[in-house]
Amino acid sequence: MDVLDLPALRRRRSRRQAIVAVVLIAIVLGASVVAISLGASGITPARVFATLAGFGDRGDEFVVFRLRLPRIVTAIVAGFAFGLAGSLFQSVLSNPLASPDILGVSAGASFAAVFVLLVASGSGFAVSAGAFVGAFVIAALMWVLAWRGGLVGYRFVLIGVGLGYVVTAALGWMITRADVREVSQALVWMVGGVGGASWSDIGIAAGIVLVSSVAIIALGRRLPVLALGDDAARGLGVRGAVSRGALLLAAVALVAAATALAGPIAFVALISAPIARALLRDGGAALLPSALIGSALVVVADLVGQHVLADSVPVGIVTGVIGAPYLLWLIATSNRKGADG
Questions:
Q1: pTM of the prediction?
Q2: GO:BP terms for this protein (predicted)?
Q3: If you ran DSSP here, which 8-state letter would residue 195 be given?
Q4: Number of folded domains in the chain?
């Protein structure tokens, strides 16, 4: 490739990124309007826009602002956080399986949150705080156990998978020992859903996602250098271990915020980045497209679960049905490549 072609390639990539981002935002907004319009108290899209603009009647305002809009905003924020976190994990660790729900970060957040629900009889902020503690404890354990003079990606992934199994087993044991009425509440949360958050919960989660995203924007330009390896990064003046740690810390904060808000919605973090890279037709991190795809996945999955399927189905089950075949395909193709290599 001629070096003179590089500016044109960058312009084409930037133009494609902008087109993909606009299309994804349109999908999120369109699905959101449809979701707000549907339901027992049907509201036409025109009335939805009028209500959002402050010209709706009291009945429409109650339905939109109290019942349906919090659900939509929860889906957008949680999906954005999961999608961005998944892209970061996969880029920093250079492994398509390096997703917080595969590595045990989501499981750690779930365990701590359910512990607060069942053992400490907590709710609201206490559950959210528990999710944060659990996510960061698991991430810290993975970092310590995987460190061998540097962060080794495959060790991090294997240790994360192992810790995830341990935490999931402990979570199952805790559920079997708890009161049936409390367990039902915990199980609803563990499946992953976007219907129970208040505006204050959404505001806290959105604030954490915003701060984490700003940190990622500041550090994200180091990702291409980190992809060259720590030795090459050091030669270019980038401290590989520090940069990877800071990016993973921001990603864990995203996972904790999203899990505290909506529960461990399955596979969104795993599949968002591959879809984004396929749309952009390159192997870059695709951070913003991954985040927008995460939002689109959760909004559309909730729309399908609430209004397309016969019974109301939690969004985590719908995303699980979508993501599980991809995970099986990813494992199968990885095994095939290993056998061929």
A1: 0.90
A2: siderophore-iron import into cell
A3: S
A4: 1
